[in-house]
């Protein structure tokens, strides 16, 4: 007995469909074979009835018509095997019969009545004298254009019905065998579906309990294979996310403990007193610096939390992109100066570029990108900020550095939350994730191209403001002379000049 579940439903559905189909086929087959046999018998007897009628009309004479010997001759000539031949008058009274038993009363079946009316008649029913099933075919016999007699053939259907019953039982047995085979096949099919589902269900139940190291094993095909692969991928991603979360907790704990240790140490030291003003100033500076660092870490986590809950509110306005990048360069100038890194802004557009967005959040985007470029660049290297308009309606800002670069293995993961290529470098691993989401909120895109040991280029594409797009649509690309001048100025700046560009270092 199959227990309740999808397996039983599959078997029952197959069983019902096949059973109904076979039942209909059995009924149609039984009716068709019965009609075929009965029609064959009827055609055979009707043909002989027609011959008898034609023979009677051609050769009968008035003198011989009333001669009972003629009927005897006619019975002997047209008699059929296993068939009774009778000659009746119009009242249904038997005048002659191939059977030695004579009917004691007139025959009034439907075939006789039709023949008396001048038509060939057929009747199937039970004979009153014997109780067996018979078929009777009656044809009128005309004398001088008048229906005077009726020739009637009667045959038993018991043997035919017995054969029909045998065929019906045989076909029913075949149908039952087919139904049994289909049921066995459906059970096998149901098991082939239910077993993988049970396996997937058991493994997913363990995953639901937190055992994400288990995997669904088995080479399943089609939708079941896709489901198994999806659950395995989900478990893998959860494990990876948990690892990243653990790394984040470890990293952020270290990031928070370090400044807190410095703040606590200097505050306890300054509390003791006895320091000259210069030492006190240094201590207070360290406390202020570590406090700013803590505030930055907390704000970064708060921003990420708001973005995850879609609670980040943007103050939309018109932002001059070049001015915003210049402010960004000023904010990171001191940090770049410590490593001897030169930061240069290169504007390849012909007119000021304005975008619609939140100036503070866009500044946060580029501050994070430039700060990462400084953090992962070697000393005495350079960073370029390039503004260009590569396609109508958009402005492209590229942050190009010659730092350590990112391997292909990590390139697709650096924008994931909590992910850090170098856990010793500090930070929360949320910077690029926040940056990506802020760019998305401004309907822009951010792409990373990097080569290990060569450098990294981060490209941020933002839509121009409507006024900028309609007013300067014809100037989306600089002309040849402007492009040549920009290239010349770039070469001069690389050589140490500072024409047509902004440079800090």
TrEMBL record:
Keywords per UniProt: ATP-binding, Cell membrane, Kinase, Membrane, Nucleotide-binding, Phosphoprotein, Transferase, Transmembrane, Transmembrane helix, Two-component regulatory system
Enzyme Commission (EC) number: 2.7.13.3
Membrane topology label: Multi-pass membrane protein
InterPro entries with a match to the protein in the record: HAMP_dom, HATPase_C_sf, HATPase_dom, His_kinase_dom, HisK_dim/P_dom, HisK_dim/P_sf, Sig_transdc_His_kin-like_C
Catalytic activity: ATP + protein L-histidine = ADP + protein N-phospho-L-histidine
HAMP domain segment(s): 191-243
Gene Ontology annotations for the cellular component aspect, listed alphabetically: plasma membrane
Record region (Disordered): 464-505
GO MF term list: ATP binding; histidine phosphotransfer kinase activity; phosphorelay sensor kinase activity
Pfam family, one: HAMP
Presence of keyword Cell membrane: yes
Main location: membrane
Domain of life: Bacteria
Location of the protein in the cell: Cell membrane
Transmembrane region(s): 12-37, 169-194
Family annotation (PANTHER family): OSMOSENSING HISTIDINE PROTEIN KINASE SLN1, TWO-COMPONENT HISTIDINE PROTEIN KINASE
The name this protein goes by in its record: histidine kinase
Species in which this protein is naturally found: Paenibacillus faecis
Lineage: Bacteria, Bacillati, Bacillota, Bacilli, Bacillales
């Amino acid at each position: 007995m199959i227990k309740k579940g999808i397996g039983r439903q599959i078997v029952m559905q197959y069983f019902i469909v096949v059973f109904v189909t076979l039942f209909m086929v059995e009924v149609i087959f039984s009716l068709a074979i019965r009609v075929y046999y009965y029609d064959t018998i009827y055609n055979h007897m009707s043909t002989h009835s027609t011959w008898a009628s034609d023979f009677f009309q051609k050769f009968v004479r008035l003198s011989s018509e009333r001669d009972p010997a003629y009927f005897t001759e006619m019975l002997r000539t047209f008699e059929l095997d296993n068939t009774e031949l009778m000659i009746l008058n119009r009242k249904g009274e038997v005048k002659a019969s191939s059977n030695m038993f004579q009917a004691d009363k007139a025959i009034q079946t439907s075939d006789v009545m039709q023949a008396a009316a001048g038509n060939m008649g057929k009747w199937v029913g039970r004979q009153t004298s014997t109780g067996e099933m018979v078929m009777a075919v009656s044809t009128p016999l005309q004398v001088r254009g008048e229906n005077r007699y009726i020739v009637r053939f009667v045959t038993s259907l018991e043997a035919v019905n017995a054969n029909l019953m045998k065929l019906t039982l045989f076909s029913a047995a075949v149908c039952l065998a087919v139904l049994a085979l289909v049921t066995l096949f459906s059970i096998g099919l149901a098991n082939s579906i239910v077993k993988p589902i049970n396996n997937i269900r058991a493994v997913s139940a363990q995953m639901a309990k937190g055992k994400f190291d288990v995997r669904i094993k088995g080479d399943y095909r089609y939708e079941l294979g896709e489901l198994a692969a999806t659950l395995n991928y989900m478990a893998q991603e959860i494990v990876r996310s948990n690892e990243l979360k653990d790394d984040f907790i470890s990293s952020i704990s270290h990031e928070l403990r370090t400044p807190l240790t410095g703040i606590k140490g200097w505050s306890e030291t300054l509390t003791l007193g006895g320091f000259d003003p210069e030492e006190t100033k240094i201590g207070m500076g360290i406390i202020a610096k570590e406090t700013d660092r803590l505030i930055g870490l907390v704000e970064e986590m708060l921003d990420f939390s708001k973005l995850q809950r879609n609670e980040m509110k943007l103050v939309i306005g018109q932002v001059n992109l070049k001015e915003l990048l210049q402010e960004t360069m000023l904010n990171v100038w001191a940090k770049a100066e410590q490593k001897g890194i030169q930061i240069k802004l290169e504007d390849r557009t012909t007119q000021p570029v304005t975008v619609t967005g939140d100036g503070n959040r866009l500044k946060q985007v580029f501050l994070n990108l430039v700060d990462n470029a400084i953090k992962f660049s070697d000393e005495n290297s350079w960073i370029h900020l390039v503004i260009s308009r590569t396609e109508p309606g958009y402005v492209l800002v590229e942050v190009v550095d010659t730092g350590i670069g990112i391997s292909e293995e990590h390139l697709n993961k650096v924008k994931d939350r909590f992910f850090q290529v170098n856990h010793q470098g500090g930070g929360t691993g949320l910077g690029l994730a926040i940056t990506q989401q802020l760019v998305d909120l401004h309907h822009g895109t951010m792409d990373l191209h990097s080569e290990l040991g060569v450098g990294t280029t981060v490209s941020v594409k933002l839509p121009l403001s409507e006024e900028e797009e309609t007013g300067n649509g014809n100037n989306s690309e600089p002309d040849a002379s402007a492009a040549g001048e920009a290239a010349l100025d770039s070469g001069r700046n690389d050589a140490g000049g500072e024409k047509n560009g902004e440079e800090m270092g």
